[in-house]
Design goal:
Blueprint: H1 8-11, H2 16-37, H3 44-69, H4 75-97, H5 103-122, H6 127-132
Helix pairs in contact: 2-3, 2-5, 3-4, 4-5
The protein binds fe (ii) ion.
């Protein structure tokens, strides 16, 4: 397994702020891969989980608020998927507290599939819509 690098063709949602926020998730995934290689960094996993909680507050909420402001027709789909993300991070927190074996791998698999299925598919659908409202 290897990390994923942000790629303009695949991941650009054509809104600067949302791209910047998305890139933080790629940074977090990279940190997770570093932590997998360097097991001596015991605090890494907790730091990564906290980063993901911050990502929920800073990004998912901001994205929903922006889509709501302009009456995005597929807002519900976004909300439902974001809820799944929030629940999954809660689950990871509990797994961390219970010292779940190989939690790194579960998290890496989840984040990679989130990038492929959410950012690359669902998020990219709002680009033209937001651009048409003057949001870049
Ligand atoms: Fe989203």
């Amino acid at each position: 397994m290897s990390s994923i690098i942000w790629n303009k063709m695949k991941h650009d949602v054509k809104v600067k702020l949302l791209n910047e926020q998305h890139r933080k998730l790629f940074d977090t995934l990279k940190e997770l891969y570093n932590a997998m290689e360097d097991k001596s960094d015991k605090a890494a996993l907790l730091r990564i989980i906290n980063n993901l909680s911050l990502y929920i507050k800073e990004h998912l909420d901001a994205e929903e608020a922006l889509l709501e402001k302009y009456n995005y027709p597929e807002l519900e789909e976004q909300r439902e998927q974001h809820k799944l993300f929030v629940n999954k991070i809660e689950e990871f927190k509990k797994d961390f507290e219970n010292n779940k074996f190989m939690l790194y791998f579960d998290m890496a698999i989840f984040l990679k599939s989130w990038i492929a299925n959410h950012i690359e598919e669902i998020d990219k659908k709002y680009s033209d819509f937001l651009n048409s409202k003057g949001i870049y």
